[in-house]
Amino acid sequence: xxxxxxxxxxxxxxxxxxxxxxxxxxxxxxxxxxxxxxxxxxxxxxxxxxxxxxxxxxxxxxxxxxxxxxxxxxxxxxxxxxxxxxxxxxxxxxxxxxxxxxxxxxxxxxxxxxxxxxxxxxxxxxxxxxxxxxxxxxxxxxxxxxxxxxxxxxxxxxxxxxxxxxxxxxxxxxxxxxxxxxxxxxx
Length: 187
Prior knowledge:
alpha/beta, 6 strands, 14% strand
């Protein structure tokens, strides 16, 4: 009898306005600055046993604002800054599309494509995972796949959220709340 694979829980994190400071269409690695407390938050989530996955829309590629190479250089700089603080991501998923340029896709947030690919690659249980970002589209996927959303007051400040949707101060507070909830479940 085959056992079902053990599915992990994950923290899906947006990039701009969540892990790094919001700079608009960022194509210059010199513009990368971590949000206060972001590295500690990533490390805390990893230490709690979660997969930590970056999920980001990067339509600047499709719109010709920055190149694929520039995106990769920005990513490399962000990972370097996180790594210097012993904070590491399990994987990165990004959508380079824009519907006005490339047509519709299944990966542009709030669509579930990037999350489903991450779930398949990393054996993640989407319904038991956490979704953190500064725009409604970063967490709206929870309406389709389940999970727990944390909408941040940083960056875009929860742009597009339904009236009355609770906002969490920043990634550090979201990580504290996630880990506290996990600790409560272990007791």
